[in-house]
């Protein structure tokens, strides 16, 4: 069970959160092709290593935030706000 | 083996003043307070304890701890019966009942022991090679009957379990000299420290050995207590999980069974620790020789502990078979305890021997080639290990001790992701460095010299308390040991895994057949797959595999240890999440009122709600028919409190709702309400409900009662993650607001009689509008809407006030012939009207166009969630399933929900299915809704409906079935 | 050497010295007709069917670790074909039929045990859903039946059948042909049979890249050298995206951990497979006596074969809700596999954007039951270049056209 540092509440157990999957996806406009829309909906990098993803502290403050997390070790390298840019 | 008690000071764990009676296999026995079941059985001379898994060979107690492979018993009676319990871990108490596992009719005479006679036919993996013809199904039933070890109670567990969370800067596992030293050092450095031991008291092996070192660990324990170290005894750390979550099981002493039903049995500790120090000691590696599984063959260190801690001599005349120096220490200890050690048989050449003892017969370069006795040991034959130089000799004995070297308990280290390395001269795997979260100290780190262990552990505790790097472990002190060596060319099975009957020959066969990787070895032979998880067998098995395949043990590798370290109660892991507390149901605040009206409650999602209110002798269906008819004729009252409710505020609230919903909501006037459909980004119908505008920047949003959680989550996710510039606040208010729905032609008259504001009268308040008003000082939000097709008022009010309002309305009900109605009647009413129920008529593939919202979407210019997904070829496929109304052609036969629509009987391609189906009290015939391919084009068509082999003719008709013009809503 | 009771008897007389290696550990050759990346069930089955059905024996299966060590050896061993949509039903029932003859075909007892699977209904809504399901299965030509509460009690009395239960049992839906098979045996049986037909099985050989010439995949780079091939197949569930990235494309796949666990072995107390969709409990008893418990996904992307303790606790709580008497049993082992999760919980079997490279992936939580069909259809496309008719609905293009085969969405179950 991971210990996830909510930017607002501090570190809490994983079961207080839900993971919303890959972050920083750009939502296409209505007039894009089926290929572009399909890529947005379904296709993911799915890296074995650092993944930028969003989490919600659902049984806590209710806020969404971004996390850079290693999918192999589960180490959380950083958390940052939804509107923050991709960390270096 | 003739077990007996030894005199004090031996038996440091015992309170000899308290004699305790217990029962084993129906036989009354006694022991002392402080005994384990194993020590008490040994003291009583009980040798035969159980039968092995495959061959049903007689087995006894083999170890003195958690690694026990053979001494398994079922403990307790009735609902408290606990199967497969290691006798070595059970503290005896008055009235304890235990019985042997895996034997029938008794452990002494076990019919399945016939297997042993055919053991040549049953090598590793024999079942993969046979039982194929005529089919496994022919053989499997009898094999299943023989399988398994203990017998489960089959009853609900009366005892309780709880879960506690704790935080620590340093958590130390194991309270031997290393663990105590580490904990004291960490606490002295100022760290909040917790110390876990699976034993009843701290001290480790120094603590139970009668001798001067007892005081040393007692002093350390006292020092730890004085420093505020939190000590958890009888607490077994079984797993280390992500981000240093250490999980441990605390057993609470049983006391007497009679008084103990419903007692707190075990406690789960979840300790989030900044640093963890494992000081979990080491296991002993058994020797391999023919019939090394007989009752009366046991681990040397175990016999030593039984003598020291429990005052039990496990035998009267002992032969020690050794491969390492540790056997010599045991010999000395036993002899000092007054036990006759007939000989120490050392497999190693004399040059390797670091220890010697005057007066002890030591035979080097020798090994056991035969054990006499089946259910107990009577002697053994000694031969030269390499076949030369020693004349075979029989030695009479009743106990053979096995001292094959050490196997550090590296389980937590590998669970934490640590790697291992093989140390050749003492033939063991030790941790390769430390992991970021966990460091090892003492024997589990390969540090066997006492002062080295204490010193290193102290440094480690101090360093980790200060957040510094962990010092490397000074591995050593274990003495020299050979890697496991079996006896070639002798008769009899040499067992590697005693529980699963895996012998040296099985490992050889695995090597021969190319099951050479550690995991293949384990899975093919089942070695290490028993309840002991290979604590005494893993290292021998892979050393043997190395030997058979010409590899170094380090090249063979080890399997990665997984939690739990030792088998852990399911009940403990579940804690209090049982019975009513497992996903607790939500209850209506007026539940008592409903119950008093005779409500038949059922679970709907997470809510316990009235399905109907049957009168005496009335069925659920009949009650629902009566209630639905009453709503159409007079009036009915539904407790709709579980309906999902949200308030949405803010300057951008209207814009936000337009982005979320299929329809346009921003152009509603204040007080106006509209039906809204929510999609997910895949265009799939997710939920529906009415949205009302309470103010320029305030909206009231209803969702389905089942959909509130996913809908409010979707609102938040889109708001926070995508539409981030909008200024909107979403507040779930389901539990804040109760909801009473009054529907039927008499609905307003009833409300008026109850004193509701005349402004709510249907003449003054239009259908699909909402008004905020008061009734006797209680704030109300009244929505004129209808899911029944009748004049309807949804009265939202503070939930605490809903019970009082129900009473008030109910007092007037007789005047209007009004009834309470439940979910079943509601479903009948809405089906008669052709209204969909999301999740019943729709599933996770339904698009808005499939349920008649194609036009509404064409009319809306703006984008909304899911819209682009409605433009894909699949979404625009004319063959999609579409909502239809269905009537049985005979107007009598109800179409079963789930029945499939197809022109031909199965097997064939389905064209759709029935989704909702009820007898209509209004029409006096069954009505149904369904999803049908191209359904909207097929009005008037006849279709065939297939249900479990039966066929019903039906026709596609126009919905709604009742009041098509909507006159009753006006 | 043929396996039989007779040969076993001969073995017993001869100290079992006659048994040859079950499969050859081959050294990599520089050139093959087909290279398959991934020595799990699907990859080994594909190799076997390439040789058996298509006569293509110059085939290598390259495996990073040891064969059968991925999800093939980490599942709850359940086989069934109770699917709602014809596309899925056809594929999975074909698989089950192959399983039914597999012990004979491979001359290796995979211990197929068709003791049935009960799917419990806990509400009238559940009963309606199961009615749809059972009827849909019959439409697909697959036997299915609805059972009363009493029939459930007779089949599995260890289930809590009290009306007061938090999740009361109102009935069930059953496929009698469903059951379990010995997972390792499936991998080993295919490996042995494929090896006997000439396939090279190469363990401890990690693929580091795909050889691309003129935009076409012509082989793989491995830790043990380059292996060139006419066609290359990937069957490496859990790591599909990692390999796709090496080959230069993306997949509609996310990797999640899926846990399973077993208790200590017990005398028989549960004869069928039981699943309770409302709670997530998924339970059977192995021939060895262990209670085998399958979990729901750990719902965050992961390549760590561990599993979250929170999920372990949740699935055990669900298990006790259905089987309260399991409280005093002890959990003996817990593990996790990394599964490919696709939005519609259906597989992908066919060409990739790279010519010459084909993939079998996306099985989600249910790849084991599909091994024979997954191998068969991958072999077909590798041998002929044409998609097998059973695999037609399961192409990458559906994530553009929207023609998903969404079993989970329709049934609420992703297993």
Overview of the structural elements:
The complex is a heterotrimer of chains A (88), B (970) and C (415). Chain A is mainly beta. Chain A has one helix and six strands. Chain A has a single domain, classed as Folate-binding superfamily (Folate-binding fold). Helix content of chain A is 10%, strand content 36%. The longest helix of chain A is centred in the middle third of the chain and has 9 residues, at 34-42. Among the domains of chain B are: 4-116, Ubiquitin-like (UB roll) (Roll); 159-284 and 406-479, FAD/NAD(P)-binding domain; 493-560, Arc Repressor Mutant, subunit A (Orthogonal Bundle); 586-642 and 739-769 and 810-830, Gyrase A, domain 2 (2-Layer Sandwich); 644-732, Aminomethyltransferase beta-barrel domains (Alpha-Beta Plaits, 2-Layer Sandwich), CATH 3.30.70; 878-970, Elongation Factor Tu (Ef-tu), domain 3 (Beta Barrel), CATH 2.40.30. In chain B, the strands form 13 sheets. In chain B, strands 9, 10, 11, 12, 13, 14 and 28 form a seven-stranded mixed sheet that branches. Chain C has helices at residues 5-13, 41-54, 86-100, 102-106, 124-139, 149-155, 183-196, 240-247, 309-322, 371-384, 398-401, 407-411; strands spanning 31-37, 59-62, 78-79, 117-121, 145-148, 171-175, 179-180, 200-202, 207-213, 216-222, 225-234, 253-263, 273-276, 281-285, 291-301, 330-342, 348-351, 357-361. Chain C has 415 residues and is of the alpha/beta class. Chain C has two domains: 25-107 and 183-252 and 344-411, FAD/NAD(P)-binding domain; 117-178 and 255-342, D-Amino Acid Oxidase, subunit A, domain 2 (D-Amino Acid Oxidase, Chain A, domain 2, 2-Layer Sandwich), CATH 3.30.9. Chains B and C meet through strand 7, helix 3, helix 4, helix 12 and helix 13 of B and helix 1, helix 5, helix 7, helix 9 and strand 16 of C. Strand 31 of chain B pairs antiparallel with strand 16 (330-342) of chain C, so a sheet runs across the interface.
């Amino acid at each position: 069970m991971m210990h996830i540092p909510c930017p607002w509440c501090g570190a809490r157990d994983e079961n207080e959160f839900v993971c919303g999957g890959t972050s920083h996806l750009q939502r296409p406009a209505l007039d894009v092709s089926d290929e572009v829309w399909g890529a947005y909906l379904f296709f993911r990098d799915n890296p074995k290593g650092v993944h930028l993803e969003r989490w919600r502290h659902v049984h806590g403050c209710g806020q969404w935030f971004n996390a850079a997390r290693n999918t192999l070790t589960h180490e959380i390298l950083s958390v940052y706000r939804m509107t923050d840019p991709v960390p270096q | 083996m003739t077990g007996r008690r030894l005199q004090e000071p031996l038996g440091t764990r015992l309170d000899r003043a308290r004699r305790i009676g217990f029962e084993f296999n129906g036989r009354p026995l006694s022991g002392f307070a402080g005994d384990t079941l194993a020590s008490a059985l040994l003291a009583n001379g009980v040798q035969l304890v159980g039968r092995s898994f495959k061959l049903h060979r007689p087995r006894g107690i083999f170890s003195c701890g958690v690694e026990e492979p053979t001494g398994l018993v079922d403990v307790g009676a009735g609902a408290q019966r606990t199967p497969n319990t290691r006798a070595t871990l059970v503290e005896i108490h008055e009235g304890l009942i235990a019985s042997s596992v895996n034997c029938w009719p008794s452990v002494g005479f076990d019919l399945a022991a016939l297997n042993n006679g055919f053991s040549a036919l049953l090598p590793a993996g024999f079942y993969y090679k046979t039982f194929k013809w005529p089919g496994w199904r022919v053989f499997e039933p009898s094999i299943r009957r023989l399988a398994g070890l203990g017998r489960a109670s089959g009853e609900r567990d009366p005892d309780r379990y709880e879960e506690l969370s704790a935080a620590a800067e340093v958590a130390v596992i194991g309270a031997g000299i290393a663990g105590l030293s580490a904990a004291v050092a960490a606490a002295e450095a100022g760290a909040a420290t917790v110390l876990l031991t699976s034993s009843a008291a701290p001290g480790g092996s120094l603590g139970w050995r009668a001798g001067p070192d007892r005081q040393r660990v007692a002093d350390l324990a006292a020092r730890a207590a004085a420093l505020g170290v939190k000590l958890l005894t009888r607490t077994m750390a079984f797993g280390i999980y992500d981000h240093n979550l250490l999980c441990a099981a605390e057993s609470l002493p049983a006391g007497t069974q009679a008084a103990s039903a419903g007692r707190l049995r075990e406690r789960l500790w979840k300790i989030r620790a900044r640093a963890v120090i494992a000081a979990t000691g080491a296991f002993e590696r058994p020797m391999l020789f023919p019939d090394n599984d007989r009752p009366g063959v046991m681990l040397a260190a175990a016999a030593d502990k039984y003598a020291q801690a429990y005052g039990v001599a496990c035998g009267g005349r002992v032969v020690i078979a050794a491969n390492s120096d540790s056997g010599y220490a045991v010999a000395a200890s036993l002899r000092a305890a007054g036990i006759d050690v007939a000989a120490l048989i050392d497999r190693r050449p004399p040059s390797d021997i670091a220890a010697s003892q005057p007066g002890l017969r030591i035979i080097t370069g020798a090994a056991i080639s035969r054990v006499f006795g089946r259910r107990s040991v009577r002697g053994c034959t000694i031969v030269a290990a390499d076949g030369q130089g020693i004349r075979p000799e029989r030695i009479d004995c009743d106990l053979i001790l096995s001292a094959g070297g050490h196997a550090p308990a590296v389980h937590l280290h590998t669970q934490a992701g640590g790697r291992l390395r093989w140390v050749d001269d003492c033939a063991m795997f030790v941790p390769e460095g430390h992991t970021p979260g966990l460091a090892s100290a003492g024997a589990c780190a390969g540090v066997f010299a006492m002062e080295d262990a204490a010193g290193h552990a102290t440094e480690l505790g101090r360093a980790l308390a200060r957040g510094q790097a962990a010092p490397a472990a000074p591995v050593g002190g274990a003495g020299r040991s050979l890697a496991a060596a079996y006896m070639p060319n002798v008769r009899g099975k040499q067992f590697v895994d005693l529980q699963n009957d895996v012998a040296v020959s099985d490992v050889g066969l695995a090597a021969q057949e190319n099951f050479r990787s550690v995991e293949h070895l384990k899975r093919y032979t089942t070695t290490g797959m028993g309840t002991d998880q290979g604590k005494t067998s893993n290292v021998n098995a892979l050393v043997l595999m190395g030997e058979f395949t010409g590899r170094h043990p380090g090249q063979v590798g080890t399997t990665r240890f997984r939690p739990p370290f030792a088998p852990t109660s399911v009940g403990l892991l579940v804690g209090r999440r049982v019975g009513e507390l497992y996903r607790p149901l939500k209850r209506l605040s007026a539940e008592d009122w409903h119950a008093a009206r005779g409500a038949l409650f059922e679970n709907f999602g997470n809510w316990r709600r009235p399905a109907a209110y049957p009168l005496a002798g009335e069925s659920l269906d009949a009650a629902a028919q009566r209630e639905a008819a009453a709503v159409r004729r007079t009036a009915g009252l539904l407790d709709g409190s579980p309906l999902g409710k949200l308030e949405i505020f803010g300057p951008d609230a209207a814009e936000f709702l337009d982005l979320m919903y299929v329809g346009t909501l921003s152009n509603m006037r204040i007080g106006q309400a509209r039906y809204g459909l929510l999609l997910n980004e895949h265009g799939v119908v997710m939920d529906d409900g009415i949205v009302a505008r309470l103010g320029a920047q305030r909206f009231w949003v209803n969702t389905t009662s089942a959909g509130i959680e996913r809908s409010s989550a979707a609102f938040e996710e889109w708001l926070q993650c995508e539409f981030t510039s909008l200024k909107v606040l979403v507040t779930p208010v389901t539990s804040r607001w109760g909801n009473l729905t009054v529907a039927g032609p008499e609905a307003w008259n009833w409300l008026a009689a109850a004193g509701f504001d005349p402004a709510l009268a249907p003449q003054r308040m239009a259908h699909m509008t909402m008004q905020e008003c008061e009734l006797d000082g209680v704030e109300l939000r009244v929505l004129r809407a209808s899911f029944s097709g009748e004049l309807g008022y949804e009265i939202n009010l503070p939930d605490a006030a809903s019970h009082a309002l129900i009473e008030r309305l109910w007092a007037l009900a007789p005047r209007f012939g009004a009834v309470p109605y439940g979910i079943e009647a509601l479903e009948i009413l809405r089906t008669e009207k052709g209204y969909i129920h999301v999740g019943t008529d729709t599933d996770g593939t339904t698009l808005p166009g499939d349920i008649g919202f194609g036009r509404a979407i064409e009319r809306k210019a703006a984008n909304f969630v899911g819209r682009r997904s409605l433009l894909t070829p699949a979404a625009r496929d004319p063959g999609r399933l579409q909502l239809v109304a269905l009537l049985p052609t005979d107007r009598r036969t109800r179409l079963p929900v789930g029945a499939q629509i197809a022109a031909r009987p199965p097997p064939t391609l389905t064209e759709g299915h029935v989704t909702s189906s009820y007898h209509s009290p209004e029409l006096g015939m069954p009505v149904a809704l369904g999803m049908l391919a191209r359904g909207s084009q097929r009005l008037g068509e006849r279709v065939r409906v297939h249900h479990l082999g039966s066929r019903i003719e039906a026709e596609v008709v126009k919905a709604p079935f009742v009041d098509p013009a909507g006159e009753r809503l006006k | 050497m043929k396996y039989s009771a007779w040969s076993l008897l001969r073995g017993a007389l001869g100290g079992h010295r006659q048994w040859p290696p079950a499969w050859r550990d081959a050294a990599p050759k520089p050139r093959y007709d087909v290279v398959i990346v991934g020595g799990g069930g699907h990859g080994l089955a594909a190799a076997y069917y390439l040789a058996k059905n298509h006569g293509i024996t110059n085939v290598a299966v390259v495996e990073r670790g040891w064969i059968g060590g991925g999800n093939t050896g980490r599942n709850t061993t359940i086989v069934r074909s109770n699917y709602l949509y014809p596309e899925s039903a056809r594929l999975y029932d074909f698989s089950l039929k192959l399983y039914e003859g597999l012990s004979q075909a491979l001359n290796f007892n995979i211990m197929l045990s068709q003791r049935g699977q009960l799917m419990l209904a806990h509400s009238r809504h559940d009963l309606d859903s199961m009615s749809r399901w059972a009827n849909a299965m019959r439409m697909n030509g697959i036997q299915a039946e609805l059972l009363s509460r009493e029939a459930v009690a007779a089949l599995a009395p260890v289930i809590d059948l009290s009306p007061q239960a938090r999740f009361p049992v109102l009935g069930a839906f059953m496929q009698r042909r469903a059951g379990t098979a010995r997972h390792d045996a499936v991998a080993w049986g295919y490996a042995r049979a494929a090896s006997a037909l000439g396939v090279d099985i190469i363990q401890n050989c990690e693929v580091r890249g795909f050889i691309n010439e003129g935009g076409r995949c012509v082989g793989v780079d491995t830790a043990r050298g380059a292996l060139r091939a006419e066609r290359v197949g990937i069957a490496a569930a859990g790591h599909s995206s990692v390999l796709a990235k090496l080959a230069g494309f993306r997949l509609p796949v996310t990797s999640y951990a899926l846990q399973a666990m077993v208790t200590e072995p017990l005398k028989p107390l549960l004869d069928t497979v039981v699943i309770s969709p409302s709670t997530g409990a998924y339970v059977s008893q192995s021939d060895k006596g262990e209670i085998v418990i399958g979990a729901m996904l750990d719902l965050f992307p992961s390549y760590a074969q561990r599993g979250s303790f929170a999920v372990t606790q949740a699935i055990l709580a669900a298990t006790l809700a259905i089987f309260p008497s399991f409280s005093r049993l002890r959990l003996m082992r817990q593990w996790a596999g990394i599964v490919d999760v696709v939005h519609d919980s259906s597989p992908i079997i066919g060409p990739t954007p790279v010519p010459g490279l084909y993939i079998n992936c996306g099985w989600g939580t249910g790849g084991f039951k599909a091994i024979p069909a997954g191998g068969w259809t991958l072999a077909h496309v590798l041998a002929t270049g044409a998609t097998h008719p059973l695999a037609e609905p399961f192409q990458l293009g559906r994530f553009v056209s929207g023609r998903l085969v969404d079993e989970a969405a329709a049934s609420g179950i992703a297993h």
